[in-house]
Amino acid sequence: MLSGKHLLSARETAEFLFGKNDDASYQKTLRILRSGQIPTIKSGKVFFVARAELEKLGVASLPSGGTVVRPDFGSASSPSDDS
Questions:
Q1: pTM score > 0.85 for this model?
Q2: pLDDT for 26 beyond 80
Q3: CB 13 within 8 Å of CB 25
Q4: Cα–Cα dist 65/55, whole Å
Q5: Helix ranges restricted to H, the chain
């Protein structure tokens, strides 16, 4: 679960941004992180994103399966019914 975490992995950032933890969202997130659109902390090849940076950019914390708040990062996703 993402609540309470201050640093998010790239996969967790994908879930935070797009409400999904699938490969397409992950790959899209990696492109965003590599482009520098979101400030990151990098350890070797691994990206981490401070939750505060996402909030500073106007990305609100998403409930599980929520919708993306920053549509310029990609298309919005709807909650899925397969809980």
A1: no
A2: yes
A3: no
A4: 18
A5: 10-18, 23-35, 51-56
